[in-house]
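Second attempt. The first submission of Calumenin had a stray character pasted in from the spreadsheet, which I only caught after the job came back as garbage. Lesson logged: always re-copy from the clean sequence file. Corrected sequence (315 aa) follows.
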Amino acid sequence: MDLRQFLMCLSLCTAFALSKPTEKKDRVHHEPQLSDKVHDDAQSFDYDHDAFLGAEEAKTFDQLTPEESKERLGKIVSKIDGDDDGFVTVDELKDWIKFAQKRWIYEDVERQWKGHDLNEDGLVSWEEYKNATYGYVLDDPDPDDGFNYKQMMVRDERRFKMADKDGDLIATKEEFTAFLHPEEYDYMKDIVVQETMEDIDKNGDGFIDLEEYIGDMYSHDGNADEPEWVKTEREQFVEFRDKNRDGKMDKEETKDWILPSDYDHAEAEARHLVYESDQNKDGKLTKEEIVDKYDLFVGSQATDFGEALVRHDEF
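This time the job returned cleanly.
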């Protein structure tokens, strides 16, 4: 499927979704739950396994003996200990948990990296990305699919420059990840807010008013009666979104809406795992302390640790 076909498909899917008058569009970026299981260690450690490995990896934990499980857990601990000082801190454990939960992001980056690093030098320049993504479509001054590719390219270039910390227009894998998934990086949050406001601000005044806010998530489609959730969203806008009560959302108000300061589940789980495993109560874990509590971290089950270790090397 080429770029035009993909974008047309995406557009049609979006139009179909928005044509449903009762379907809500959500722009808020929330940190995902670590597991859909109940966190009750008195019953099982399933929640902790999901948090530590990711739910998909944890599902395959059913074939290793306790000895094999301990051995592989020890290998993971070596990867978590980022500064190689022989201890795992709460911060190192939190970083690992966040990596395990967002492994799909790194998988997506790997797929796209191969298609954009055209000269295979381990970097992706803006020129490489532009040529791979827009090369041939920009030659057509009047595309018949309704997409403004030049406008899309300008927006992509702005985001690429924001992700490119050293300003050389050449992205490392980390910078390319920030470009593709800006909501995951603090220094990219302003561009997420800017792009969101540009999408919703139909009159171009630099703000989001009530009707633009509602219009982005709900299509009347000839219906005079609004669903209850739309009425609730109107109340949310007036009572909570528009903090200064001027009838519209500015940049900071939009940021508070789409990028809320969520409870840090990864840090809470990291502190829990350290508390439960820290035998000498020094606030950090040795490999021995973690392996001794293997049942808390991974249990006597199997997983594809090799794949996880390779990806964490890149992380």
